[in-house]
Amino acid sequence: LSAGAEALYLLTCREMADGWLDSERHLLPDGLEGIIPGPYLAAIVGSVDPSKLNGHDVVRLMQARARLSTHDEAGKLAAMAEVAFAPPCDPDSGVLRSSDEMEYAAVEVAASLTLTRRMSEIELSRAVSLTGRLVRVWRSMYGGELDLARVKVFDQMLGHLPAETVDAVLDLELDDAAGLTTGQLRARLGRLVL
């Protein structure tokens, strides 16, 4: 079993057997911070009542939920980017992807997510940028390391630059970005871009 699967197994077996849902106090598994965002982490944090955690564990739960939320947002962006390359067709068609962006992809995104046309254009552009030119930033987001606010800063500051400049800046700043506020990140990226 992977670390996440083992933690989930131990948590559900041990705690459910002891009446987890009715107990006075909930406990988070050791190593929660190391569980990769995905279904195992979702099952763990979804089974916990924050009001039954001590102060230390409620902070750990908040951090785990933030990593999971970021992971899910990255998944949504990846799906959105694929809409840009998905030709309109009937559901049974074998055509999966075009090499060119589809003209009305923003309209599809707007209708599907109940967004204005302008907001869907902004979101779709960001999604295509992150899963293409800024894929390293997207991977950090998918791994739960970078939240959407920091990812937006990377996109705004680097999305228009040549690929070699983007790579050079990411080599210097990507690893440290999670520990910076958006203002600090924007300032550091701005200095490097100049």
Poorly predicted regions = none
Task: Report the sheet-strand fraction.
Answer: under 5%
Overall shape: globular
Helix and strand composition category? mainly alpha
Describe the structure.
The structure is a single chain. The chain contains 9 helices and no strands. The protein is an all-alpha fold and 194 residues long. The protein is globular, with a radius of gyration of 20 Å.
Task: Kindly summarize this structure in a few lines.
By secondary structure, this protein is mainly alpha-helical. Helices cover 61% and strands 0% of the residues.
Defining traits:
mainly alpha; single chain; 194 residues; 9 helices; globular; 61% helix
Topology (elements, then pairings):
Layout: H1 3-17, H2 39-46, H3 55-83, H4 105-113, H5 117-131, H6 135-142, H7 148-158, H8 163-173, H9 182-193
